C-alpha cells in the first residue's frame, strides 16, 4: 500500500519551500514542484534561495531531515534499496559512514568496476629507480611500496609513464619482472 504524500516546510526556508516524504520540493513563490539536478555523485540536488542567497541541498538529506527520525545523531543517509533516485522517506535511514560504505552490494560493485580493477593492477606494477648521480638502483615490488622508500606513488608512476624525467633524484621505469626494464609509452 502506497503512503500518502505529506508536505512540511523546509527548515530555514519556512514560507518559501516545502518538502514531501516522496522527495519532491515545492516552491510557494512559484507555485510549482521544483526541478532538481543530478550532481557529480549521481544524487538529486536542489537549489533553494532565500534573501538572494542560494544554498544547494541533496534531496535525500532534506527528506531524511524532515521525515526520518535521527535520535542517535547519525551523520549519513542511506538509500535502503541502493537506488539514488528513490528518495521516499520509507527508503531512507540514518547511518554511520562505515555502515553506508559497506551497505548492500556497494563493495561488490566497486570491485567489479573496470576502472577500480585497472587502478589496483597499476598499483601492483613493478618499478626500478636508478639514481641520477649513480649508485645502486631501488627495486619496487609494486608501486604501492614507493612510500616505504620515501617516494610517492604518483611521482614514480609519472616517471614510468614519461610525464616526468625524475622523482626525488631517481629515474624510474616499469620493470616487467624478467630483468628487462621497459618504459611504458602512452597510447601503446
UniProtKB/TrEMBL annotation:
It holds the Pfam family HNH_3. GO terms for molecular function: endonuclease activity; hydrolase activity, acting on ester bonds. Keywords: Endonuclease, Hydrolase, Nuclease. SUPFAM superfamilies: DNA-binding domain of intron-encoded endonucleases (SSF64496), His-Me finger endonucleases (SSF54060). Residues 5-49 form the NUMOD4 domain. The keyword Nuclease applies. InterPro entries: His-Me_finger_sf, HNH_nuc, NUMOD4, WH-like_DNA-bd_sf. Residues 57-101 form the HNH nuclease domain. This is Endonuclease. It comes from Paenibacillus apis. The lineage of its organism: Bacteria, Bacillati, Bacillota, Bacilli, Bacillales.
Amino acid at each position: 500500500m502506497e503512503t500518502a504524500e505529506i508536505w512540511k516546510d523546509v527548515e530555514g526556508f519556512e514560507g518559501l519551500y516545502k518538502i514531501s516524504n516522496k522527495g519532491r520540493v515545492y516552491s510557494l513563490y512559484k507555485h510549482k514542484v521544483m526541478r532538481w539536478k543530478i550532481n557529480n555523485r549521481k544524487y538529486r540536488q536542489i537549489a533553494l534561495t532565500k534573501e538572494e542567497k542560494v544554498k544547494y541541498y541533496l534531496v535525500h538529506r532534506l527528506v531524511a531531515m524532515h521525515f526520518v527520525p535521527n535520535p542517535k545523531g547519525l551523520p549519513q543517509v542511506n538509500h535502503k534499496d541502493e537506488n539514488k533516485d528513490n528518495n521516499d522517506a520509507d527508503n531512507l535511514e540514518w547511518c554511520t559512514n562505515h555502515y553506508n560504505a559497506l551497505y548492500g552490494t556497494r563493495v561488490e560493485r566497486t570491485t567489479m568496476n573496470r576502472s577500480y580493477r585497472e587502478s589496483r593492477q597499476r598499483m601492483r606494477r613493478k618499478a626500478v629507480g636508478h639514481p641520477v648521480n649513480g649508485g645502486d638502483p631501488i627495486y619496487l615490488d609494486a608501486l604501492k611500496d614507493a612510500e616505504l622508500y620515501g617516494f610517492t606513488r604518483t611521482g614514480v608512476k609519472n616517471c614510468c609513464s614519461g610525464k616526468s624525467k625524475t622523482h626525488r633524484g631517481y629515474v624510474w621505469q616499469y620493470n616487467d619482472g624478467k630483468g628487462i626494464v621497459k618504459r611504458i609509452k602512452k597510447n601503446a
